[in-house]
Amino acid sequence: xxxxxxxxxxxxxxxxxxxxxxxxxxxxxxxxxxxxxxxxxxxxxxxxxxxxxxxxxxxxxxxxxxxxxxxxxxxxxxxxxxxxxxxxxxxxxxxxxxxxxxxxxxxxxxxxxxxxxxxxxxxxxxxxxxxxxxxxxxxxxxxxxxxxxxxxxxxxxxxxxxxxxxxxxxxxxxxxxxxxxxxxxxxxxxxxxxxxxxxxxxxxxxxxxxxxxxxxxxxxxxxxxxxxxxxxxxxxxxxxxxxxxxxxxxxxxxxxxxxxxxxxxxxxxxxxxxxxxxxxxxxxxxxxxxxxxxxxxxxxxxxxxxxxxxxxxxxxxxxxxxxxxxxxxxxxxxxxxxxxxxxxxxxxxxxxxxxxxxxxxxxxxxxxxxxxxxxxxxxxxxxxxxxxxxxxxxxxxxxxxxxxxxxxxxxxxxxxxxxxxxxxxxxxxxxxxxxxxxxxxxxxxxxxxxxxx
Length: 453
Description:
Elements: H1 6-31, H2 39-46, H3 52-66, E1 79-97, E2 110-130, E3 136-156, E4 162-184, H4 189-201, H5 215-251, H6 253-267, H7 271-285, H8 305-342, H9 345-352, H10 357-393, H11 399-408, H12 412-440, H13 442-452
Antiparallel strand pairs: 1-4, 2-3, 3-4
């Protein structure tokens, strides 16, 4: 049915592909914290409790939040009776005094030539049994006693006279004790995954272990700061960089020679390095802009003029750290595509017709922009990751700082929630770019039309 509408068919197939990718991301987000040690055991090991009852209650709550145990319809934990084995190790020490046969206390205070070894003692034991005629029979058997840790020492007095040898034989006996205990029933990995996916689609990302708040509430508090920082920086950086690249390709000359090395330098600097450079020079050395934070600590968040001005003042350095790097990379790509497009026939024909430079530049930008959209889709993930690191550098209260706080405190639900949100945003951004390419690029439309014939 969709063969008559190749563009709709293409978008539908891409939507299915991105949805399957999202499900794979959900599964990875679920299994990765559970590959190593149990996250609940890690957190319980770092916490302190006043009583065993408090420890048990906290552990059950954590396992319930993680979906590691079975819950009935009323929300209660299903418990089973299990048998556990306790291993009791008893240590027996035998002290033997050699030489003069004196007691240990009177052998002096100088000990030399101390070494340790393992001794196996062989002994015979008589085993009594009863045969078929009820006669008692005796059979000699050999048993082995293993001395697991033997300390030998030569003891001398203060004048250096040898008083004797001390041998301490340490033997370990093992006793197995059985006991019954009631434990919460563990859920299977499949049921945990199904429950996790269901909770995600309901908007329930769990509860933070650190401040006992819902993860969705923590994300909603940090998300506006991240959107306000990243969206304008990425959008204006892409537009500004592509405009400069197209202009440099069209004008060439001094403008191109000055722009190209500068843009190449900016595009080769990582986000976090450039951010630290801005903090050091503009925030620490010259003190032109604040080094960290999103607003002055003395102000209360609100829509007052003082607060908005403080936010704008703190916004400059984080914005520039993302905007300039992105603009430099886009300018390099657009310049290369612009130089290629200048050699095409339609640009030469437009110049022969005597069209204005702005009109020719608009044609050039429109056609050279299409590969840049593809490049933007491929680099969105890197840009988002770099921008989150920028938030950490500037202590900006966005998703980057929320992620950093969660990592330092082993707050797994927040880590999972932020990671899943970032993955979803990257997939949606790539899907949007795919739609734009399908609608704007006539070559894609022609290819889709040919595939349906």
